[in-house]
Design brief:
The protein has a two-stranded antiparallel sheet. The chain is an all-alpha fold and 271 residues long. It has helices spanning 3-7, 10-41, 53-75, 77-85, 89-94, 96-114, 130-156, 159-166, 188-198, 205-233, 235-242, 250-256, 265-270, and strands at residues 122-123, 203-204. It is built from 13 helices and two strands. The longest helix is centred in the first third of the chain and has 32 residues, at 10-41. The relative contact order is 0.13.
């Protein structure tokens, strides 16, 4: 064994793997955001010219439904074990969040880059109201980014895994978020994602199908997430659920703005 090889300890290999995984994860994450933002805006950039209509439609279905199915599967306890096993040893277990975000990002990139256009007909808002649509679309992305920050970028962007390994630490998973947008509803990330899917100004059959599936997943996905959180945190999460609706309501918005007081047991009795 050479002197160089003798100096490469398991810790060095773990940190090198973490660094490579981190670079791949963050690059794929931002690439996924870019292609998704362009695609949902209405400028779908798939490879439809290389496929027949029938084969293209089948590929679309596989791409579209494979994303939420695998996403939910890998978030389960068994799925996390599969993700951990994709990289060697204990390092693979520490890099679960990083590997998961990489897989999800690559799925989104594949969805929007390989999507086969299903038709040429499209609807665009009149020029007089086009700026309103653009503002709504931009605001939806800002809301999504804010929700992700408040949920914890370490988890949402896959930072927790690879940065912890580089520091020589075991990843410490935070509890569920309760402040900020989480005072308005229980699932601001999913709500914002649904808005992003539905506020793009250019609509055609491609956009309608993707928006419908994404929005449906944003309603169903949190149900599975709540089941996992209830098992993990028990009464603490059950208490959190009491005063917060699933998605925002006018009442929860007014209460978050301080314009409506939370109902106490005595006020509930009077009502």
């Amino acid at each position: 064994m050479s002197r160089l090889q003798s100096r490469v300890t398991p810790l060095h290999r773990a940190k090198l793997l973490a660094l490579v995984s981190g670079v791949v994860c963050q690059a794929s994450f931002f690439a996924a955001v870019a292609v998704m933002a362009i695609g949902l805006h209405g400028e779908m950039i798939g490879l439809s010219n290389t496929q027949t209509a029938g084969l293209g439609a089948i590929c679309n279905l596989l791409l579209l439904f494979f994303f939420p199915a695998l996403h939910s599967l890998l978030l389960s306890n068994k799925g996390r074990k599969v993700v951990a096993a994709l990289l060697p040893g204990e390092t693979g277990r520490h890099l679960v969040t990083t590997t998961f975000v990489t897989i999800a990002s690559l799925q989104l990139i594949a969805l929007f880059l390989l999507w086969a256009h299903l038709g040429q007909a499209e609807w665009r808002p009149p020029e007089a109201v086009r700026p309103i649509w653009e503002i709504l679309y931009a605001a939806s992305w800002i809301l999504l980014a804010t929700a992700m920050v408040q949920a914890g970028l370490g988890i949402q962007m896959g930072l927790l895994g690879w940065t912890s390994v580089l520091k020589g630490e075991t990843p410490r998973y935070p509890s569920f978020s309760t402040g900020g947008l989480y005072t308005v509803c229980r699932h601001p990330v999913y709500f914002a994602m649904a808005l992003v899917s539905c506020t793009g100004p250019v609509w055609n059959l491609d956009h309608a199908i993707i928006a419908a599936v994404f929005t449906t997943y944003c309603v169903i996905g949190p149900i599975f997430k709540e089941s996992r959180l209830e098992k993990q945190f028990g009464a603490k999460f059950s208490e959190f659920k009491k005063d917060r609706p699933f998605f925002p309501t006018p009442r929860s918005l007014l209460r978050a703005l301080g314009l409506l007081e939370a109902a106490t047991p005595s006020t509930k009795a009077r009502l």
